[in-house]
């Protein structure tokens, strides 16, 4: 799955000092894209469990709940 590959790439890139800042910027762009799409975190549980991208899902879940708290409670 494309999403899984992107998240795994970002996780790996954040571990390298030469790519960390760029990876963090790209991660923020990706999270904002998902927020605009109102993409529910539970939709992507499978990719988070399949790779090292669990930290991205946790961060996105916090952002999602903050922005869409009424919908997240459903």
From TrEMBL:
Protein name, UniProt field: RxLR effector protein
Organism of provenance: Phytophthora nicotianae (strain INRA-310) (Phytophthora parasitica)
């Amino acid at each position: 799955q494309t999403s899984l590959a992107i998240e795994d790439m970002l996780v790996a890139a954040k571990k390298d000092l030469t790519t960390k800042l760029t990876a963090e910027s790209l991660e923020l762009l990706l999270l904002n894209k998902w927020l605009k799409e109102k993409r529910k975190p539970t939709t992507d549980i499978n990719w988070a469990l399949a790779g090292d991208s669990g930290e991205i899902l946790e961060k996105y879940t916090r952002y999602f709940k903050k922005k869409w708290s009424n919908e997240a409670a459903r």
